[in-house]
Amino acid sequence: MKMKIGAFVGKLPSWVKALGLAILGAALIALPIVYPKSYVMGVMCRIFMYMILAGSLNVINGYSGQFNIGHAGFYCIGAYTEAILATKVGLSFWIALPLGGVMAAVIGLLVATPTLKLRGTYLAIVTLGASEIIRLVALNWEGLTGGPIGIKGIPSPVLFGFKISKSIHYYYIFLALAALFFFVTYRVINSRIGRAWLSIREDELAARSLGVETRFYKAINFMYGAFWAGIAGAAFAPYFKFISSDMFSLDEGFNILSMVIIGGQGTLLGPAVGSIIVNFLTEFLRPISQFRLVVYALLIIIMMWLRPQGLVGASNSILAGKKIGGNLSRRGKGGAAVARAGGR
Amino acid sequence: MDYYLSQVINGICQGSIYALMAIGYSVVVGVVGLVTFTHGEVIMLGAFAAYFAFQFFGNNLILGIIASFSASAFIGIFVYKICYERFFDAPRHISLLLTIGVSMLLKNLTQILIGPNNMPLLGVVPNKFFGIGLVGVTLVQIIVIVTVISLSLLLFLLFNKTRWGIMLRAVSQDKKAAALMGINVKVTSMLGNCIGSGLGGIAGMLLAIYYQTLIATMGGSAGMKAFSASVLGGLTDIPSAALGGLSLGIIENLGITFASASFRDIFAFIFLLLVLLIKPEGFARKRGVRP
Known about the structure:
The complex is a heterodimer.
Chain A (H helix, E strand, L loop, with lengths): L4 H7 L2 H21 L3 H26 L7 H19 L3 H20 L7 H21 L1 H4 L12 E2 L2 E2 L3 H23 L2 H11 L1 H6 L4 H27 L9 H14 L5 H16 L7 H15 L30 H7 L1
Antiparallel strand pairs in A: 1-2
Chain B lengths: L1 H31 L6 H19 L3 H24 L7 H23 L4 E2 L8 E4 L2 E4 H23 L1 H11 L1 H6 L4 H27 L1 E2 L4 H13 L6 H21 L5 H15 L13
Antiparallel strand pairs in B: 1-4, 2-3
Helix pairs in contact in B: 1-5, 1-8, 1-9, 1-10, 2-3, 2-4, 2-8, 2-9, 3-4, 3-8, 5-6, 5-8, 6-8, 9-10, 9-11, 10-11
């Protein structure tokens, strides 16, 4: 596997990239008109939603080298915030959607704060715990969250008097959200903030000595990832019309994590590829669905042994299993993250 | 008052189980030098090994301890071979993600092979009750506390009086220096991983006996409690980890007198956050290698 997809795409002239994106976008917009089967639409909705979830987890794990393994918790907060605001307060979806994201970001800041000074391991266990605690609170706070019964009958969003209720309509919502996510994340990654994240991932001590306020940027990074997980949850709640706490178990978090690892951490394309692969696998494994997580676990182990940077990852970053010291001489080869982090 | 006193006794009993899990965790992290997320699953598998030993060979506690220790130690070899052996020099996130993968694998395989439901484990210890002054103590609680104390003493002797123990301590302090002294670091790390996992397995058996039930998903909260308790010792210091486990048990049982028992797992999390906020490096004596 010496093929470097990222490097290959990086070398193409910009008009080719723009044309490719335009064709892809047109094809995705046209798909429901050409092939409006509700099963396909449902699968596509899930793929787009998991693209946002895996992409936002990748911003935390892949771009700044922190370890969040309880991403399902923030997804859960977004979904419950939207559901409660829509059913109890009667807020419109379009206001509840960003509020779900903001709520998840605030909780994310609370979770991450005690560990900002420490190594990534502590953040990993704190996020794991937080995900489980959020689920337990949702399960036991019956007055607000409906307890074990969950929240039923979440109203469909209304856009200019048009009620969005079918999978085809949700397809466009999820497509738009995913496109927005990728655009905003692309801009952020290529800004001053994104370069600070990359430098923290490659070598936190060096980054700090170069004047990067690491704790601030790590907090920003965690909040950004949690925000988009909340958005995905808030969009999921009215789509599924029903949420309960067992949809957001630790296994859901591991599911998202496996997408990021299989696709490739630290690349924008990786989680998208991972989401497509894992969701197709889910569909293929439906007859033996109890083996689903076993297969994902084996895939994580195989990926870590053979290709730790994931399917589309760059091969000369710290994510590929190489420490940075030996890598400096290879700067400039390919579209590598190391060169990007230090070169501009 | 009686009620609070008996809650404290319950807390000490559960806390000693948590202490044993935390001791196992600290041995693993200290000797191997990399963090593990499989400890909860190792605890769960130890509990199941003891369960099958009790089913097939009768309710013999010594047999249960041997079964759970050896099963978990065997899983320790498996975990070591997959997650650690080739990755001592690689960036840490690789072995960390591998342990997450292995823990997913073990949990879901157990769920498929044994079943996802609660399994009762009754009558291993006769249901006796001793009244001491104002409070009562059950036989199970005495057995749990005695087992944990004697295992801790055994571990203390192993670490301080035997050649293996000196090797284990040397590897946990400095791998390169230990290798220069002629210690086989890889074998010793594997041994440490096996001992830590085995202690976790015995803790799993004690949990199953204490609650009289076991389930394939018990590893998640058990692993988190082991981690929370050993944070007090900076993840590597064994006596502080035991103290952390004990205090975690007492805090939990006093906590559920104020809140509902379904919020039990939240106290471990609050304990973890408080320790990380107030004294993130723990009470470890040595300051040096940290995972």
